[in-house]
Amino acid sequence: MEKKTNAEVQVNMHEEMRRAFSLLSGKWKLEIMWLLNQRLYRFGELRKEIPGITQHMLTAQLRELEADGLVLRTVFAEVPPRVEYEITQKARGLGPTMEALTAWWSEYGQSVPEKPSMRGRKAKAASSKLG
Hints:
Elements lengths: L5 H4 L3 H12 L4 H10 L2 E2 H7 L5 H13 L3 E6 L5 E6 L1 H4 L2 H14 L23
Antiparallel strand pairs: 1-3, 2-3
């Protein structure tokens, strides 16, 4: 029988936090989670709330969040099909983190220089046709 040292048994918090960060790392995941922390959303509603996100990217990010157990997807057998997304009980544990980030932004957000958004596709300007 092998003896394990305390160093081998101890949890490497750096590695554990990297795993935690990876759950929410992704171009849009934090924004999706922030919205779902507020209420249940249908796919189209989420897409409208997140300017610049493509349908493909929203689908991919939601699938990853669902696979990680942070988002629950409910499909209703209707025509056309209705799909709703909500955060899971596990993800609700992130609520205090979201509240802390909101409080931090309320206090310090004005001091952060605004950057032009380079995310997602640009909205197409409405072109007028003559004739």
